[in-house]
Amino acid sequence: MIRRIREQIAARPAAFALSGIALAVLALVWAVRDTPWQALLVLRFDGLSAFFLFVTTASLALLAWSLPQPDRPTLKRWGACLALVSLAYSAVLLPVIVAAYAGLALLLRQRPGGLPVSAPSTEVGDTRLFSPAGLSERVRRVRWSAWAPTLAAACLLLGYGLLVLRGALRYDERIAGAAFDSLVFWFVLLGAIIPQLAFDEQDDVTHGALIWRIAWLYPLVRLYSLGSWNSGWSFATLLLAGSAALWLALTALTRPSSVTRTTSSSYLALALAGFGLGTGAGVAAGCYGVLAALVVGSLTNDGGRTTEDGGQGDKKTEELQATDHGPQTTDHEPISTWLLSGALPFTAPFIATWMLIGAATAGGVIALAGVVWFVALLSALTLALRGWESATHRSAAGASAAFGVAAPLVLLILIEPVILQLQDGLTPYGDVNIWPWIGIAVRDSANVQVATLPSIAVAVLMLVLTALVYLASRLYEQWRDEPAAIRSVPAQSSQAAAPSRFGAIVAFLRNDVPWLGSPKPPSEHEQRPDNE
Amino acid sequence: MSELLALLGRAWPNLLVYPGGLFAFALVWVLGMLQGSGNREAGTGKREQGTGNREGKRADGRWRMEDEGRRTDDGEDLEIRRPGDQEASSEQYATQHLKRNTQDGASNPDPRSLTPDPWHITAIAAPWLALALLPLPEARSFGRPVDAIMLLALLDWPLLVTIASEVRAADTWRNGARRIAALLNGYPPLILALLMLALSRSFELAVFARPPAEDARLELAVLQWLGAATLVLALPPILGIGAFSANNHRKDRKDRKDRKEDSVSNWINSLATFARFAVEQNEPGFSNFALHIGLRLRTIGLTLLAALPWFPLLGDWPWLLPVPPLLIALLLWAYHCGAVRQPMRRWGYVMLGLSGLQLVALLVAAGLALRERLI
C-alpha cells in the first residue's frame, strides 16, 4: 500500500505537491478570515490575497492532475510561476507587486518547447514597409496574445508607478488613497482587461494562460483597499467587461475551435464586471466568477484535442481551422460538458452568472444583468451545439457540481472574508445573504431580496425527482418489453461518424436570426438547409 | 439542517400533486390528446394530398415525423413512411433504425445504453421541479423564495438536451438548428421582459404574482405591466411555435401553400402541430419519450410563468383563475395558425423590434430611477 502511494507520488510529484499547497492555502484562507496576517512588514495576507492564492494553487493542482505526462510543464517552471504570483498577492509594497507581474510576464513570454514569441514580421518587403498595405499586413501578422503580458505589465507599471511617484509606496498607507485618481485607475483597468481578450489558437492554457489571466484581475480589485471607486470608473469597467464577455461568448458560439478556452475567458470577463460593480454582491459575484472560470478553464487543458487523437491536437486544430468546421464529436459520456456548461442549475458557472445577474439588478445596472443572462444562454448553447469536445476531465465537472451545490458554504468560507475586509471601498447597493444548508440570496440597499437561490434545497429535491423518473423509466422499459437489440442502440451512436455540420448550422442561424447579420451565401462545403 | 429537512417535508404536495405532479402530468396528457386528435384528422386529410413532412402516430404509440423523399446528409435514403403505413410494426422501424445507425459506424451496441441516459431522465425531472416551485394560486408556499432565473434554467433544460441530441443526428440537425435560431430570436425579448418585471422589485416569483404596490411610482407600475405583456409576446419563439416551429422548413411551407387545404382541416392540423412542441422520433425507447414529456412540461411551465403577473387581476373572482393561462394558450394557438407559413427571419425582425422597444422602456425607467436617487 505504502509502496503504491510512493509510486503514485513519484509519477506525479507536481500534482501531489500542488494539492498539498492548495490545502495549506485553504487553511490560510480560514486563518485570515477575521484579521489579516502581516509578516516582515512587507508581506500581508488578507482575505483577497488568500482567495487569489487559493485559486492559483487550485488551478495549478487541477492542471497537474488532468494533463497527460508529455504536456506537463516542469516543476521548476510551475514553481517559478507560483512563487511570482504568491509574491504579487502577498506584497504590500507597490513596486514589488509591479516587479512580480513583470517577472510573470517575462516568464509567460518564453514558450515551452522553444516556440519563439512572434515579432512583427518584416517579410512584406522593405519597399512596402511604410505603405498602408504593408503596415496593415504587419499589424495583421502580430500575434497579439504573445504581446499581451508585456502590454498588461506596462499598463500596471504606469498605473501603480503613478501611485509610487505620488509617494504611496504601500497600498495600505493613507496617502495611497489620496494618490488614487482616474489616470491610475484607467491604466490598471487596461492591465486587467487586455489579458482577458488576448487569446490565440496556438496559445495553450497548459502553460499558465488561465492562471495569469486570473492573476491580472488582482491589481484592479486591490484598488478597493485604497478607497471606493467613483461611478465613472465603475461604469467604464462594466462597459468594457460586459462587452468583452458578450464578444467572447459569441466568438465561442461561432468559432470553430477553442470553445472552452473562450468560454472560460468570458467567465473571467464577467468576473471583472462583478468586481466593477463595487458592491458586496458584485465582489462576491466576481470572486465566484473566478472560481467558475477556474473549473471551466481546466476543461481546456488538452488544447482542444480529443482523447483518441493521441497527441495530434495541434494538427487537428489546424484542420478544423482550415475547413471552418467544428471538431468531430465523440461519444464520450457528456457529464463533464453539461456540468461545465452553465445550463444546469447547481453548477459553478450557473451560480456565477446567477450571482452577477442578481448583483447587477441590485446595483441598478439592469443592462449588465441582461448581458450576463444572454452570455449564460450563449455559453450553454455553445456547449450544447459543440458537444462533448473534450469531456474527459471529470475532476473539473465534479468541482463544478460541488462548488455549485455547496455555493453557500463556498461563499461563507472563501468569499465572505474578502467582502468584509474590502468593505471600506464598497458601496451599499447590493449584498449577499447566506443561508447555510439552504442557499443564497442577493439583496439591494433597501434590504429587498432581488434574487434568491435555495441551491442545496432545490438540488436535494431534484435528486428526489430524478430518482422517481429513473424508477418510472425502468418500469417503462419493462412495460415496453423491447428487444435488447433495439434498446441497445446508443443514443448518440451516429455521432462518432457523422460529419461535423457546424458551419452549416452557423449559416442556418445567420439566415434565421436577423441580429446575427445578413444571410451568408452557401459555400461548397456548407450544406445549406432547404436549398430547394 | 433542520430547516432544510422541514423545507423538504413541506415540498411534497407541491412536487406530487399541485402545481407539479398530478396537475402537471394531467396537462401533459391533455396536450397529448390534442395532438392525437389533430393528427388523426390530419392523417385522413393528408392521405389524399401531396407530399411533404408529416407527423403521425405509430402503432406502438410513439410519434414520429413522416419524411417522404428526403435524404440524409450522407445521401442515404431516409425511411419512407406514409400515413397509411401507421400499422407497420415497431420491429420493422427499429430494424431499419438500427441498420442506419450501424452503417454510421455503431456496429457495437453500447451495453450502457440499456439503462436510460441520465440527462434524458433529468429532462423530465428539471421542468417538473420548476413547475412544482411555481407560486400558482392555491399552491402551498415552498418555504424559501425561488427566482425566475433558476426557474428558467430548469425549464430550458429539456430543450438544451433535445438540441444536443438533434444537432448530432444526420436526419434531425436542421430541427436542432431551427430550435437554436428560435431561442436566439426569443431570448432577448424574454430576458428584457423579465428584467422589466424585476426592475421595479425583484426576480422572486412570488413578487411577480403580486400587483404593483399602491404607492409604487407610476413609471415602475407601467414598466411592470409592459413586462408582463411582452413576456407573453416573447413566448412564440421560446416555445418554438408558428414561424419559429422546428419543423417549419421552407419546403413544408411551400407544400402547405400548394395543398390549398380547406380552412377547417388547416386549423385542425395546426392544433396538432401546436400541441406537439416535441422532437422528431429518432431514437427508440425511453430517451425520446423523456424529451417529449420534458418539452411539454417546459411549455406548460413557461405559459404559467407568463400568466403569473396576470393572476392578481382576478383576485376577487377565484373561479376565473384558469382564464389567464387559457387565454395565453389561445393567443399562442392563434399566432401559430397565422404565422406557421411564414419565414422565421421575418418574425425575427419583429422580435428585434420588440426588444428595441423594451430596451427603450427599460432605459427610460432606469434613467428616471437614477434621477430620483441623485435628487
Give short descriptive properties of this protein.
heterodimer; A: 532 residues; mainly alpha; 3-stranded antiparallel beta sheet; 23 helices; 4% strand; B: mainly alpha; two-stranded antiparallel ribbon; 63% helix
Mean pLDDT across every amino acid position of chain B: 74
Q: Characterize the main sheet of chain B.
A: 2 strands, antiparallel
Strand content of chain B: under 5%
Termini separation of chain A: 68 Å
First-to-last CA distance of chain B: 45 Å
Question: How many strand units of chain A?
Answer: 5
Q: Secondary-structure element order of chain B, as H and E?
A: HHHEEHHHHHHHHHHHH
Instruction: Order the strands across the largest sheet of chain B as they lie in space.
Output: 1-2
Report the sheet with the most strands of chain A, covering strand number, pairing sense and barrel closure: 3 strands, antiparallel
Mean pLDDT of chain A: 76
Question: What spatial order of strands do you see in the largest sheet of chain A?
Answer: 3-4-5
Helix content of chain B: 55-70%
What does this structure look like?
The complex is a heterodimer of chains A (532) and B (375). Chain A is mainly α and 532 residues long. In chain A, 62% of the residues lie in helices and 4% in strands. In chain A, strands 3-4-5 form a three-stranded antiparallel beta sheet. In chain A, strands 1-2 form a two-stranded antiparallel ribbon. In chain A, α9 runs antiparallel to α13 (259-277) and α14 (280-297) packs across α20. The longest helix of chain A is centred in the last third of the chain and has 26 residues, at 455-480. Helix content of chain B is 63%, strand content 2%. Chain B contains 15 helices and two strands. Chain B has helices at residues 2-10, 12-16, 22-47, 90-103, 118-133, 148-166, 173-200, 205-208, 218-233, 235-239, 250-259, 263-276, 286-307, 323-339, 344-374; strands spanning 54-57, 63-66. In chain B, β1 and β2 (63-66) form a beta hairpin. The longest helix of chain B has 31 residues, at 344-374. At the A-B interface, α17, α18, β5, α21 and α22 of A face α1, α4, α5, α6 and α7 of B.
